[in-house]
Amino acid sequence: AQFKRLAEFHRIHGTTSVPAKYPIDPKLGNWVVRQRHQYQSMQKGKTSNMSKERIQLLEGLAFQWS
Description:
By secondary structure, the chain is mainly alpha-helical.
């Protein structure tokens, strides 16, 4: 569900850089922050819920990991 909202945000704004405190959709802003955190944890070899499939989906939207 959040990915679809991010895809819509990307379609409208041309970016996936959702503000962390995005007033229109606070849950989306929080979700984007969590995706970056999960990805960074995975990169460091720590426990993470990030999957290769989700990485591919997000990178398909030119997601910025940092």
